[in-house]
Write a structure and sequence with these properties.
Helix content: 25-40%
Distance between the termini: 25 Å
CATH topology of the largest domain: Jelly Rolls
Largest sheet: 8 strands, mixed
Number of strands: 19
Shape: globular
CATH class of the largest domain: Mainly Beta
CATH superfamily of the largest domain: Alpha-ketoglutarate-dependent dioxygenase AlkB-like
Number of domains: 2
Order of helices and strands: EEEHEHEHEEEEEHEEEEEEEHEHEHHHH
Number of helices: 10
Structural class: alpha+beta
Length: about 475
């Protein structure tokens, strides 16, 4: 389909959407926008390049715009716009040898493990399954959460994703982990090029005939969704408490203040079990990764990540390090406002001097990556050692609560559309270019992203949120 819009005194732009009748093509390609005449192209490209050359001459930069990776942590007195890297280990720290390349909270390594948490891994804290409030009440209702997970699993809410882990234009791969996204109405989450659409956790959009129970003891879908909204509130309060403690520790040593806020608007729930196809952990070669090394993306800078995890099956309690584990390593500027400074080679940002730690948590525990922890650390999920099947390892569910960056909510896109429609009377190349970019964004970042995930995805999500429907049906341009 070719659109050739005509306006007075404006050079026409031709926008070509390849195969508009076949919506299920790769969501990872960009719009093929061709400029018929050269004036707008010159304005969009030529002026930008000219300004970049001027900036480089002004600052005395060479031809490369890639900033070098800082080798030493900045001091606590660094400016507010500068990153505050994790604390280095003490020079006299004595780390006993650990056999599999991971520093764990076991045996004679306990003291060293705690030292690592106090320095290089400050900001990683845990709540045990038996954690209580100051009044003595249990923080987590484990039984209710487990029943909710079982219900969502039985209703096929957990789905395999197809992503491009090595970037645009590379080979697609299916994830070993199945996932579903719950959250505030209209929220989405994008990772590795794929946009996930959330089920509203208030349960208000559960379709007719979808909320029944097979027996009286079974929790309904609506109650299951609301259960995670309640869990979200609990983790938010716990985050406030942990951030307060971290802020006091930093203030005592003259460190940087807390810049993040407590609060989450989505939870990405992962379901994982052992598979012989899992790849070996690349750093040490020991253990297998259910989720490889990464830092969570698309999040508000300095926001905390809160994770509740539970295990069904054999390893419901961690004994030494026999169960599912979360591995952590220091990697400066993996995410956050300075992430672009490290370049495309993530491994180059890993701090080899800091040991990789591995936390084996009991089923029903929660852990938090506070403030800027996600900016300068990466994490991976390791399957149980010596597991040969899903029966040996059990099934691990993790509810990972996050605060999204602006632009991942359908309401944000709808407002952009309404603003654009309200300005249809305006003229000029900049206005026209902005309108075309919005059209491309809606098609390739929302419509195709929704349909490319298949009929099963459409069936379970089509009626859950009117906000997303407005984009998919084009209603946002008609209101």
């Amino acid at each position: 389909m070719t659109l050739t819009p005509q306006r007075p005194n404006v050079n026409p732009i031709i926008i070509s959407f390849s195969q508009p009748h076949n919506i299920c093509i790769s969501p990872l390609r960009y719009a093929d926008i061709r400029v018929k005449r050269g004036q707008i192209k010159k304005e969009m490209g030529g002026k930008k390049n000219k300004n970049r050359r001027k900036e480089k001459e002004k600052h005395g930069q060479g031809s490369s715009s890639l900033s070098s990776f800082p080798s030493q942590p900045l001091s606590a007195s660094a400016g507010p716009d500068q990153p505050h890297f994790p604390l280095p280990l003490h020079a006299n720290a004595d780390f006993p040898p650990y056999k599999d390349g991971f520093l764990r909270d076991v045996g004679n390594c306990r003291k060293s493990y705690q030292h690592a948490l106090d320095t290089a891994y400050e900001g990683f804290v845990c709540d045990g399954p038996d954690a209580t409030t100051p009044s003595g009440e249990a923080i987590f209702n484990h039984e209710r959460i487990r029943r909710a997970l079982q219900k969502l699993d039985s209703e096929n809410y957990f789905r395999t994703d197809v992503t491009q882990p090595f970037g645009l234009g590379t080979k697609c791969a299916k994830t070993y982990v199945t996932r579903c996204l719950l959250g505030a109405r209209g929220t989405t989450y994008k990772y590795l090029g794929l946009r996930m659409f959330s089920h509203p956790w208030d349960g208000s959009f559960v379709g007719k005939g979808q909320d029944g129970r097979d027996n009286k003891n079974e929790i309904s879908i609506k109650e299951s969704l609301r259960c995670f909204s309640e869990l979200n509130n609990i983790l938010t309060k716990r985050t406030e408490s942990h951030l307060s403690v971290l802020g006091e520790k930093r203030a005592e040593r003259g460190g940087p203040p807390i810049r993040g806020r407590a609060g989450f608007d989505v939870t990405l729930i992962n379901r994982m079990e052992y598979s012989p196809d899992l790849k070996a952990e690349p750093t040490t070669g020991k253990g297998r990764c259910a989720v490889s090394w990464h830092a969570d993306s698309s999040l508000e800078h300095y926001s905390t990540i809160g994770v509740y995890h539970t295990i069904f099956g054999r390893h419901e309690k961690a004994h030494e390090h026999s169960s599912w584990s979360v591995a952590l390593r220091v990697a400066h500027d993996s995410e956050g406002p300075q992430a672009g400074h490290r370049g495309t080679d993530i491994e180059s940002s890993v701090v080899k001097e800091s040991p990789i730690i591995c936390a084996s948590l009991s089923s029903g525990a929660a852990y938090y990556m506070l403030d800027d922890f996600n900016h300068h650390h990466q994490h991976a999920v390791l399957a149980p050692e010596n597991a040969t099947s899903g029966t040996d390892s059990g099934v691990r569910f993790s509810s990972t609560h996050r605060l999204l960056r602006q632009g991942h909510n359908a309401n944000f896109v709808i407002e952009r559309c309404r603003t654009t429609v309200a300005g249809f009377h305006r003229r000029g190349r900049k206005v026209w270019r902005s309108e075309q970019l919005l059209l491309s964004d809606i098609e390739f970042e929302w419509i195709r992203q929704f349909y490319v995930q298949g009929l099963g995805h459409k069936k379970i999500l089509w009626q859950v949120s009117r906000d997303t429907d407005q984009i998919l049906c084009g209603e946002c341009f008609l209101t």
